[in-house]
Amino acid sequence: MAEHVRLTVRVTPKGGSDAVDGWTADEAGRPILKVRVSAAASEGAANAAVVALIAKALKRPRSAVRITAGETSRVKRLEIEGVDAEALAATFGTP
Residue 2's closest CA among 52, 89, 61? Predict the structure, then answer.
């Protein structure tokens, strides 16, 4: 079975550029990766930009990154195939 990880992100649409802004924590203390995308949150444009940004950062095809929860929310849960926790930490740092 292929490796996969789950990642929670907090998205800022229309953030000027596509970038990862580091880790924060939610109100329960769980780690959340802050990302911003230049796309607006309409017609799925911001979601597509988030998938593309995370896929590019992890050197995975876009098809390996899926939004599993929060499609219409700023906080989204992603599942990324072909990546393990060590690769995630090497790319985005440790929360």
Answer: 61
Give the model confidence (pLDDT) of 80-92 as tens digits. 999 999 999 999 9
**Coil, strand or helix: which one is 47?**
helix
Residue 38: how many other CB atoms lie within 10 Å: 14
Cα–Cα dist 37/49, whole Å: 6
Which tens digit of pLDDT belongs to each residue from 18-58? 999 999 999 999 999 999 999 998 899 999 999 999 999 99
CA dist., res. 20 & res. 37, Å (int): 9
Element of type H or E holding 34: strand 31-36
End-to-end CA distance of the chain: 26
Going by C-alpha positions, the residue among 18, 23, 52 that lies closest to residue 10 is 23
